[in-house]
Specification:
The chain has 674 residues and is α/β, with parallel strands linked by helices. Helix content is 30%, strand content 19%. It has an eight-stranded mixed β-sheet, covered by helices on one side. Helix 2 crosses helix 19, helix 5 runs parallel beside helix 13 and helix 8 runs parallel beside helix 13. The longest helix is centred in the first third of the chain and has 19 residues.
Length: 674
Amino acid sequence: MAPTKPRDTTRFHTCEKDCYGACVYEATWDDINKQMLSTKPLSSHPFTQGFFCDKYSDKPKALYHPDRLKQPLVRQGPKGTNDLVQVDNDQAWRMLGTRTREIVEKHGPRAILGVSYSGNSGIVANNFPLRFFGAIGATVTGGGICNEGGIAGLRQLFGTYSTTNPFQLLSPEARLIVVWGSDMSSHNIHAHAMAMKAVKSGAKLVVIDTRKTAIAMKADLFIHATPGTEGLIALLVLKHLLAAGGADLAFLDGNVTGHDAVARFVAGLDEKQLLNAINIEARAVDDFTRMLLTHKDHTIFNVGFGLQKYVHGGENIKAIALLQVFLGNIGKPGCGIIYSQSSVRREVLNAVSNHVNATSVLGPVTEVPLIELARALESGKYKMIVVFDCNPASSLPDQERLRKQLARDDLFVVVHELHLNATTRFADMVFPAKYAAETCDLVWAYYVPCISITQAGPCPYPACTSNAAFFRRLVKESGVISNPRATLLDEPEDTVVVHCLDLAGEAVKRDLVQKGFHLLIDEHDVLFEDMRFPTADGRIHAAIPALPLVNKREPREFFLITPMHRRFIHSQLGELNEAVQHDFDLVYLHPADAPALSVHEGDAVWVSTGTTRRPYTLALDAGLAPGTALIYSGGPSVADGSRNANFFTPGIPESLGGSGSYNAGRVRITKVGK
């Protein structure tokens, strides 16, 4: 009789990508053959709702893609190319250990810089490597490149950036949903499903965006914003609301400090100047104002991250939030400002993270801002960088300047990665990483307040490592950390997760083990219903947004926006979406802009800013506002890697939170040959 095959194993997992969804799912594994067989998104999770996005639905295809890295690589050709050759795993580790030891002995541990972000958003994946950098006394990148400007702006008002339960989109009290700068239909599809359910039940929908996205086409009112003017639109609407007597004076007097000064400032704004700057029809402002007044006490804002990716991005968010403050639409059912909810019950995340990164033992690690990596490398202080969960040669601004530093012969670049990408073009050594589903971890979602689990499935490739295992072996091979600090790296991930569950509390632990996730709030909770905010006096602090009141461009110059492609998450998932890779070779303009440039769709054009000039193919998109150019960010490292939207994005950080000003670029477009 043939032996009976053991039953397949089912495990809980969480999508690890830097995405609103943080989808929780079950996967069935063949543990003998070390294969993920199938996945099933949880219908019991109120946000995952039983469906995946189409960009990353085939997870087994990603795990076993033929282009996945399975062995270490060392540089064979010049930097700037993926001319790398496979080497034996043990030999590669001996090489890395020797080089690390030499750099520490010659230049000291501060000469090593860890470069990371949220390519894998797991708590263990993000935090465990800090044990290495802290124990050795090295440096890491800190801060962010995404939503920090908006976080800073909201904190100035409320003392927190998490003021609203996103499930309030489904509240019967939410009669008007306003989507500010969020392509929900492509990049937040679970919130989009909730919004569409509310619309089907009778809620009205307003969309303000620089593109006419799919959700904008379903809106009762669409306001086509010129890039960077969203905050000015909010101020003009606030001016109309105040003139119409729409402010909730009792709410303001009882809960808000500084509202009189803001009201005086707004009343004194020149409406003609604002309309000229924002370039929209006055009728749209009137219509929006009327809808806000009609649905006062029943309006909820969903604010995307793209409209804070300007130098004044946090001020944009602050201006938008002031609309809800003056209407009194805070702390009420069906009202509020949905942005990021990652600070809800932050004490749980802090306790867990502090255990994983061991800062209570090692103290804080020295940081340099990730957004200023090029400047940090120009200092010459760093002789070795270790890149993990990040693709800086694609994702950071001011690429010309950054790549010049990455190409230096005296900078030893180590990359821990799943696939070859733009940054591996500058690597001296590349080590293969595990996918998140092959590791033990926890994920703290940032759209819905939730913590969820990933239970490790077997990896068929012995050389692939988790972040924790990578740095654990680096300690062993380099010998640069002595006991007792070296023992901090010995703790296996599964043990780390068990300790984290104990710290999170019994209710969290029970839910994670039994159903894979734990909601940190009830679906029906109304945040700050008691009107007590984490400010010094418990009140909202209204402040005048520091916004430029002009928004000019030079003749034949275009505002540049650099959104994610609908099939990508920043520079990730190219291996699953090869059919759309050509979209990253295109620059998009509104059809009305083409005649003045004497260009037609399909023409080869130069896109330039300052001394940077790159070739693209022209595409036309009536969904853009005239005067706006679009190049998708991220994307695959095609051809010689010369095309990337971030060649044209400025290196100037956003002013409040220090994140990236990715939509603040200005470009010129000319036909090749002219």
